[in-house]
Amino acid sequence: MDRNQAVLTLNSGISKLSGGDQEFARSMLRQLGAKGRLSEKQWWWVEKFANDTVNPPKMATHEVGSFAGLKRLFDHAKQHLKRPAITVEVPGVGEVKLNVAGPKAKKPGSINVVGTVKKDYPQLGAFGQLDSVWFGRIDGEVFEASFKQAPPAALVEFLKKMSADPAKAAHEHGTLTGRCCFCNKALEDEKSTAKGYGPVCAKNYSLPWGK
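-> structure tokens emitted (211 positions)
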């Protein structure tokens, strides 16, 4: 499609893009409206995003097992916390956060898998900066991977471990790293270090704490 058609297509279908892409696309459209021009790199992104609204890339899927157990933990935590989340350090991947998608998400109730990675943004002149990246979502027993960021094998294996026994995975993370995966704070006393999480998070997420 030509550039005029790309702008019209992007304007009409911009809501089909992910949040980060929507923000970037809107910024370029605002610049085009204000200044009447874009750089060649920016035009490349406009045409790409316009095409993505018409022919959305397909997401690869990975069987990771049922996350019903983790959903129960989140459902219980919602009685005490506004936005419950689990933050873990996955070897070879980095920090990964799991949270439940809200009612306005494409798949409400699914579990988002978000990481922190180093990315380059040559179109913005930014190189090697830390950024949040959406690896995909867990829907039922399937991990739907983002078409932008291929999930590392270590991440898929971690998700399988988390689905099999979320309490055990939380315990192992805490004892290994010295940080609670529920509040992402350092474990300070001996019992919390042994359990892998503290008494407050045990109550919030309905996890065993006694003997």
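The chain has two domains: 3-54, 61-204.
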